[in-house]
From TrEMBL:
Protein name: Cytochrome B6
Highest taxon above the source species: Bacteria
Pfam families per record: Tsr0524-like
Matching InterPro entries: Tsr0524-like
Native organism: Desertifilum tharense IPPAS B-1220
Length: 66
């Protein structure tokens, strides 16, 4: 996934706060804003939403929107 690409959150692998779940239910589409190094060999993808809320996801939690 590339910075600037639109993506949709399709699932959540880890537990997140109820506030985050509610935000994602209202609008699961955002823009890739960057990357976050994680433990091991994985890289998290930082997604920014229209309301300026941003958080990171594993790549398999997102799907590109064409």
């Amino acid at each position: 996934m590339e910075i600037g690409q639109k993506v949709k959150v399709r699932r959540l692998r880890d537990r997140v706060s109820a506030a985050t779940v509610n935000k994602l239910k209202q609008n699961p589409v955002g823009t890739v804003a960057g990357y976050k190094p994680l433990d091991g060999q994985e890289v998290g993808i930082v997604v920014k939403f229209d309301d300026q809320f941003a958080t990171w996801f594993f790549e398999d939690e997102l799907e590109p929107i064409s």
